[in-house]
Description:
CATH architecture: Alpha-Beta Barrel
Largest sheet: 6 strands, parallel
Amino acid sequence: MSAESTFPQLTGPGATGVGSMPGTDAREAAKTVTGSLEALPHLVELPARGPGADMVGRSLGLLVELFARVEPSGWRFGDHPGRDTRRARSWLGEDLDALEEHTQGWTGPLKIQAVGPWTLAAGVELHRGEKALADPGAVRDIAGSLAEGLRLHLADLRRRVPGAQLVLQLDEPSLPAVLAAQVPTASGWQRLRAVDRQVAEETLRTLIRTLDVPVAVHCCAPGVPLELLRRAGASAVSLDMALLTERDDDAIGEAVEGGTVLLAGVVPAVGPPASENGRVSDPAGSVGVVRTLWRRLGLDPALLARRVVVTPRCGLAGASPAYARRALSHSVIAAQSLADNPE
């Protein structure tokens, strides 16, 4: 793995957001994120604006020479760019303008998000109505188009925020279902065949190597294939800590000792988990699950501050604006508690 693709060492409390925020005001959301997350801010997503601002629609807008539109059944590929593609690209431009405005002079890590090829293929239909995942050729086309679109997207961000150390988060919540034959057909009556794990790994590896930036893969579902993601070149894995079981211990231990960073989702994405005064309660308690995991695995406590970045358990689009702000601040304080008291 090249130096460019190693997850950056953060200079402040290791905390960030998953991506989405509530509301429709790009500048207000960018102000909140950059003001709260001084070590690792991120490009916001505002799905409340409608189709094209959701994570799948935004990523479809990044594709090169592939276009999609919204049908009653969801997103479907079409022959030419239409209103939905133009809307997705327009909203992304608005969000980039807001980020640029609030990151003048920024020289630290900066995270962006995009849906990975397997979740796109599992969630978007082909012209004839079947999921793209059913057609290996279509999956290859999606992965190639996404790689080129992300390359252009990253180049645009380097122009806008020239001092930033860019980090890409690939959202792959459907990957465990793709590997376990749990993705329904378009009719919903059957399940699509499982994708071979070597094929899934190679597709991700090719994409990650093409981009040559640190890549974190986010998966807020049970059964995250940690070993597969490590072999594919992910330098970090973002997951919901509440979904882990002791069956994941060996894979997590090997990942941490091998240098993989955990973006540990510990703060509820909706809430608040409030005390009687209405504030988000006990940041140090939020990372108790991380400390417990570390002790169970016998990992060096000194690794906590270097290998763990605290996040909400998922995106904050479903929260109130006030709670979203508190959740980000809570994540920062919780991360600081890990650094201050690793034992």
